């Protein structure tokens, strides 16, 4: 990006923040779909082992209590919602908070361990992406009953939609399922996921969505759990996993361009989290971090979900200098770093 472009983006961000400081949310609502990167407690209400509603999860969040977020504190989506001018977060759709007027500013359907493939979600009893879409239709009916068809339509069309999927499809399905791994090459598997992605975006468009932000895959081979499980003893990022992530990211960007050509009024942005996160992992000290190989929780090499608990030995006392909270998920500090990147990348969605 040229210096002129950077200055233009900076000016637009400052203008946005002025509106926010004056109490004006930049969009009427935020609707969230996805996996554990976005889940704020939906899995608390499922018969799933993939949960984070116990300590030390949430120890640095509001009131220092676990909420179901796979983090010590706020998610990147939480910071994004704050940046947009909201003073509360979209509630987990299955929670008791997701009622009445609480739904008017949006809601969150994300479920840890879900994926673009429904088969990934079934493995872990998560809410599949297709089911999340069904819940969204149900949500639309509730909002329409509250505010009327015209006002509801304005909310649905003006809302910002966020989606994060794909990591579970690879880490918790493709790489550990020998039949799947033999049946599909990485290129074919990426196409399989993108078929689901395309169908989801088109269905969401039919339901009124016009501003959609989708996260790319992170550098999968640098996740502490991936290094432990697939690194063959080497204490460094797994190249083949990162190559798969880059291949998918290239394909999803091309797919997004095709979808926006098909729908001229659709704003669809693929947020690049691969590059900033990889840079942070390779050069943590340049951004105020010191540990990128091991996570804060437990030994930092394998613990996530149930293995990351208050009895896990070795958990750090201060997570602010760690890139990862558990062996898969970023710390609040990293989420803040990523959300700042998302803000500049997502200008087109809210302008």
TrEMBL record:
Stated name of the protein: GDSL lipase/esterase protein
Keyword Hydrolase: yes
EC number per UniProt: 3.1.1.3
Broad enzyme group: hydrolase
Record's keyword terms, sorted: Hydrolase
Organism of provenance: Dioscorea alata (Purple yam)
């Amino acid at each position: 990006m040229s210096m002129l472009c950077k200055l233009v983006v900076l000016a637009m961000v400052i203008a946005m923040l002025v509106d926010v400081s004056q109490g004006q949310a930049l969009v009427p609502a935020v609707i969230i779909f996805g996996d554990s990167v976005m889940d704020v407690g939906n899995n608390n209400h499922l018969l799933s082992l993939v949960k984070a509603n116990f300590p030390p999860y949430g120890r640095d969040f509001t009131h220092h209590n676990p909420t179901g977020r796979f983090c010590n504190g706020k998610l990147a989506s939480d910071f994004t919602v704050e940046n947009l001018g909201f003073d509360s977060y979209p509630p987990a759709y299955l929670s008791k908070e997701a009622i009445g007027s609480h739904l008017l500013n949006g809601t969150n359907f994300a479920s840890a361990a879900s994926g673009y493939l429904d088969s990934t979600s079934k493995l872990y009893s998560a809410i599949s992406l297709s089911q999340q879409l069904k819940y969204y239709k149900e949500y639309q009916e509730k909002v329409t009953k509250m505010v009327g068809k015209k006002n509801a339509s304005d909310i649905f069309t003006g809302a910002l939609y966020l989606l994060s999927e794909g990591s579970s499809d690879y880490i918790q399905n493709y790489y550990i399922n020998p039949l799947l791994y033999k049946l599909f090459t990485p290129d074919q598997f990426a196409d399989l996921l993108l078929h689901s992605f395309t169908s989801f975006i088109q269905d969401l468009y039919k339901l009124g969505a016009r501003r959609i932000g989708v996260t790319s895959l992170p550098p999968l081979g640098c996740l502490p759990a991936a290094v432990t499980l697939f690194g063959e003893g080497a204490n460094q990022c797994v190249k083949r996993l990162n190559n798969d992530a880059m291949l998918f990211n290239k394909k999803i960007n091309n797919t997004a361009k095709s979808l926006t050509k098909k729908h001229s009024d659709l704003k669809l942005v693929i947020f690049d989290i691969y590059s900033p996160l990889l840079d942070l992992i390779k050069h943590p000290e340049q951004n105020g971090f010191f540990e990128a190989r091991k996570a804060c929780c437990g030994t930092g090499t394998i613990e996530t979900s149930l293995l990351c608990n208050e009895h896990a030995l070795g958990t750090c006392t201060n997570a602010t200098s760690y890139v990862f909270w558990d062996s898969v998920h970023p710390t609040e500090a990293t989420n803040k770093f990523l959300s700042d990147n998302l803000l500049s990348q997502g200008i087109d969605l809210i302008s």
